[in-house]
Model the fold of this input.
Amino acid sequence: MRTGIILGLCCILSAFAMGLEVDIYSDYAIIKDNWPEKIGEGTKVVQWQLPENIDLNSFVILSPEIEVLSRIEEKSSQLEGRLVHVFVSGGRLYKGILKSLGEELVLVDSENGNLVAIINKDHVTSIIPQEKVNFTKKLKLELLNQKKQELENLQVRYIASGISWNVIYSLELNDKKATLVGEYQIDNKTTNSYKDASVRLIAKTEPNYYPYGLRNEMALSTKGSFDMIQEPQMTQRAETAVYEIPRKIDIPSEARLRLDLLKEEDLKVERSYIMDDNRINVEIELSGIKQPLPQGEISIFDKGILASKQFLSSKPQSGKLKLNLGETLDIAGLRESLRHYKKGLNLVDEYRVTLKNNKEEEVTVQVKAFLPRSNSEVESKMPYRRISSNIVIFDVVVGSKEEVVFDYAVFYPEK
Done:
């Protein structure tokens, strides 16, 4: 619960309030909340204990009637009374319960209470807690209520680290159809819970945000797993995709919350086999995707077999998605250099390409040829198309269990 007393007495805050809104980005969250705090006409001094993950520089009071006259920020921790390891100059280690954290550190034995050591603070290199410690920040504000009536709530907004979300995709390929499933994960690595919150997940490309003054004092383990709940709805905000969860949810502390994000069925699949050097890679293009795709990890299954696992960067809503599955083992390709000679004012390079298809069906292999000059010319009995000044592609049809061999020559000026 939150309580508040005038003139410096402490108001302890948690995240359990009406109207809690949580916008989660890739590595931080923006929290907007209404804190119950009675502010009568005139001035009042309030003092709050805030969790370490809150960026005090971002903390603002949004209530238009309130003016902040003064602001004092302090940082404190609950190391005293905890089992700690203290490292001092020279690498020596002391273990015990920390009883004093002034100019001298006092450690006592955790079992019998006997004195372990008194250490000058100047000799300490690090203090490592051996149990969970809640680091807090103290914020003291002098507020002026410019209205002639008492206010019962303060609308506040702040940025909090330790909260993030990402996406795990699974793509099932079945010949010319595919199903794409996405699940998002909310990771709350803080000791703060958020109850009955309206949550939006923000997907955008932006520079990393590093809240000023925030440091990870200790690693908080992730624990707990929660069942799937109602699927969020996606809306557009300029260049940002916003996934709105349609009902209020609880975000437990030190836990991972999982929810369905999307399910795209009956997607059209087109496969391409591309020869680059002596490797033949498989690329697929999915058509029919109806929404943007936030970045995440995607596992690709081809007829039930894991074909690839890779990182997917954020994709705008274009209806299509291209993925490279890597090198195929069913189609072999070999490019050989036959001759290099001079003919008139030109240099000539001759090549031979051999393709062997071990599949049960006919395939078309796109054989890429890189040209040494933008004004290079190509001669071959195999048709080709020029896709840039320095690249041509031969579209070669290879029947099942068949082998195709063709030659081509590249002509280019000597100078």
Remarks:
- Confidence is low (pLDDT under 50) at residues 1-18, 206-231.
- The chain has no helices and 31 strands.
- Residues 61 and 156 are 4 Å apart (CA to CA).
